[in-house]
Task: inverse folding
């Protein structure tokens, strides 16, 4: 979402949270952004780690906040080793932009043709719209007639289909019976002093078995498969005989990315463990690791290989590459697979083993693999896990090298997801405090009470209201997660005991929201100025001026355009504390004020802070200088701004810890 598009979010997005009947019975749980970073994104798979996030028992809906309103998004909750929320960042997302999403309770999940996992005898097939995508075979494959039973093995991908249905893999070709579509064997290994070959099965040294049924999931966003492979040492001496030397876990994700006939994304992960207390060494060797044997249709004349470094069949063998594209003829013109390796892989970027031009007598000769141990041994220690990750982009037609590089960047540097607001706890309670000392009292206080009570009722926090300073005691404040100072002014507390109770509450982790003239409260108490962020000095006449959004990703500014034209009193504060995180600032070039040359002058250039936040020790504080007129408290633009500040403070206020609080009033 660029700055211009953000303008269209004004009122529409967050006011719909307050007023929309479509979602009125549901409540927000998480608000988060997805940042494209330095790279353009196209139908990118995205995951949010939810470990440690205590979602309530419910059904959920995922919504994207767009210029056209809240749009339901297909999503999937995956309960694997980590709990993850998965979805597709659909369409194009330009570099340097962010998109905003919200997870809510409810059942309005967007419709999508799901990825379906079908179990058949000895295999799992993933489909979408009854079209095959990928088949994983865990049962041992029968061998061609007349061939040794040593060639039997399971644990491989075949077929891998293109989006339109072309088979791109091959198993047990006559020239190399031990080739199995897409597989991950090791050729030269040492285990307990014995040399083992898990690639050339005819030697009878090793084989691969799948000891248990794979676990699968399916859904609107992806299908997953987790399975375990045992690399069996067939030469182990008696009495134990053959036994597992290496254990491998495969995790496959088939993403529902793109249009029906567009590129299909498959993620492949191999996690290696020693199967015993003995070291397992993968010796340096020419070919081993993540391998691909292509369809028999492909050869020197009908296929092309291209690496990220511009190498091909003729000169790519033994070189290193971030990605390699294998493309050839198909029933649909051309089809291919873009193989991508991950920067965290061992010996990245791995060296490639390619069959060169003319190899295999020039027939059916497209073979490749990423080999992390081509030049140097890889020693696996017991008790440790070693992970290799790859992505396959399967497509029909043609993809340019520039597009391939973008796909790799998307894989290697995925979009970053950041939770900016949690609303998981519905038991939050605030004290809305409105005490004014002698002097000016705003007529907006009653309207602010009505507005904040309404916000609380609609967003899961309860509101107690008082202007009685006698309630400012440690025992009473302990009931609240935050205090909202709504347009308090002048002497807000009557006694030093009340001040100390308030001070200790904030130091212990209590939250504070301060609105408009709250900056004019307790003008003789420096600790209060520092905690709020400054002390009111003066303001020019009420007028319309421009406000610059400094942080557009804070919950209180998310709905605002980058430049917000707003009528209000432009408050000038002094004793400004530099540790605050400024969210909004007045464009002083648009403020009419005969005295602004005296103060603020050029202290802040053309901008003067109006709204800020701070992680205040254990808790949070948030202040907005806006909110003079009582009518603003029924204006969705302002109340959404206010709501974002309140929710942000509540999100950071959990449990009070008075061991962090002082016993004496800080008066300096």
Result:
């Amino acid at each position: 979402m660029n700055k211009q598009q953000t303008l269209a979010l004004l009122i529409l997005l967050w006011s719909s949270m307050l007023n929309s009947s479509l979602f009125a019975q549901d409540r927000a749980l998480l608000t988060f952004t997805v940042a494209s970073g330095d790279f353009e994104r196209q139908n990118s798979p995205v995951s949010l780690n939810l470990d440690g996030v205590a979602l309530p028992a419910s059904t959920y809906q995922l919504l994207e906040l767009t210029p056209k309103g809240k749009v339901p998004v297909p999503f999937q909750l995956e309960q694997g080793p980590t709990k993850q929320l998965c979805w597709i960042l659909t369409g194009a997302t330009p570099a340097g932009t962010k998109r905003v999403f919200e997870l809510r309770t409810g059942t309005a999940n967007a419709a999508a043709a799901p990825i379906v996992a079908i179990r058949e005898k000895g295999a799992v097939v993933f489909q979408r719209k009854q079209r095959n995508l990928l088949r994983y075979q865990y049962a041992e494959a029968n061998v061609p007639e007349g061939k040794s039973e040593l060639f039997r093995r399971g644990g491989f991908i075949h077929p891998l289909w293109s989006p339109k249905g072309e088979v791109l893999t091959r198993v047990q070709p006559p020239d190399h019976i031990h080739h199995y579509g897409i597989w991950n064997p090791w050729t030269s290994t040492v285990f307990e002093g014995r040399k083992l070959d898990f690639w050339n099965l005819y030697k009878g040294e090793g084989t691969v078995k799948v000891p248990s049924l794979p676990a699968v999931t399916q859904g609107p966003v992806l299908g997953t498969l987790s399975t375990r492979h045992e690399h069996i040492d067939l030469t182990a001496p008696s009495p134990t005989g053959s036994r597992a030397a290496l254990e491998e876990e495969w995790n496959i994700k088939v993403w529902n990315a793109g249009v029906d006939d567009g590129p299909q994304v498959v993620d492949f992960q191999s996690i290696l463990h020693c199967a015993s207390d003995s070291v397992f060494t993968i010796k340096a060797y020419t070919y081993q690791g993540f391998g691909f044997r292509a369809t028999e249709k492909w050869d020197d004349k009908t296929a092309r290989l291209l690496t990220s470094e511009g190498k091909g069949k003729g000169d790519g063998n033994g070189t290193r590459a971030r990605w390699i594209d294998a493309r050839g003829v198909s029933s649909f013109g051309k089809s291919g697979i873009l193989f991508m390796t991950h920067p965290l892989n061992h010996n990245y970027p791995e060296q490639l083993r390619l069959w060169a031009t003319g190899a295999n007598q020039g027939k059916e000769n497209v073979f490749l693999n990423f080999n992390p141990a081509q030049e140097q041994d890889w020693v696996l220690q017991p008790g440790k896990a070693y992970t290799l990750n790859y992505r396959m982009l399967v497509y029909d037609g043609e993809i340019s090298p520039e597009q391939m590089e973008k796909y790799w960047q998307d894989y290697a540097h995925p979009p970053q997801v950041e939770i900016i607001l949690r609303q998981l706890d519905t038991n939050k309670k605030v004290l809305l405090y409105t005490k004014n000392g002698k002097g000016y009292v705003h007529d907006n206080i009653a309207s602010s009470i009505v507005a904040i009570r309404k916000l609380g009722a609609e967003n899961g926090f309860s509101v107690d209201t008082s202007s009685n300073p006698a309630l400012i005691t440690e025992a009473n404040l302990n009931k609240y997660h935050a205090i909202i100072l709504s347009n308090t002014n002048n002497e807000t507390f009557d006694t030093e005991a009340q001040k100390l109770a308030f001070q200790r509450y904030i130091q212990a982790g209590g939250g504070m929201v301060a609105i408009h003239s709250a900056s004019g409260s307790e003008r003789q108490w420096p600790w209060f100025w520092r905690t709020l962020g400054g002390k009111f000095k003066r303001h020019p006449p009420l007028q319309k001026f421009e406000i610059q959004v400094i942080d557009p990703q804070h919950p209180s500014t998310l709905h605002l355009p980058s430049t917000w034209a707003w009528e209000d009193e432009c408050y000038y504060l002094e004793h400004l504390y530099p540790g605050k995180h400024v969210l909004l600032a007045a464009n002083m070039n648009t403020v009419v004020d005969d005295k602004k040359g005296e103060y603020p002058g050029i202290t802040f250039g053309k901008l003067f802070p109006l709204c800020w936040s701070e992680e205040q020790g254990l808790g949070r504080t948030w202040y907005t200088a806006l909110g003079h007129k009582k009518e603003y408290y029924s204006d969705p633009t302002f109340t959404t701004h206010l709501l974002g500040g309140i929710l942000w403070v509540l999100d950071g206020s959990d449990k009070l810890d008075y061991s962090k609080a002082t016993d004496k009033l800080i008066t300096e």
Remarks:
- Residues 306 and 382 are 37 Å apart (CA to CA).
- The radius of gyration is 32 Å.
